[in-house]
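Before going further, learn to read the protein records used in this course. The integers have meaning only within a learned vocabulary of local backbone shapes. To see the layout at work, look at the sequence and tokens printed below.
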Amino acid sequence: MSSVTNNGDGETRSSEWKAFLFITVFLFPILSVMFVGGYGFIIWMLQVFLLGPPGHGG
């Protein structure tokens, strides 16, 4: 029974490492770029339509 458990553990460990590498190499950088880009876009649109350029005001 322990040999069956060890085989499952090896496959699980391998899939965990693949998931970890996918998250750290692809998912987090892509989400970071999307978040920062989206924030910048929101600020840009607020300045275009509502707030005006920085330093603009009384």
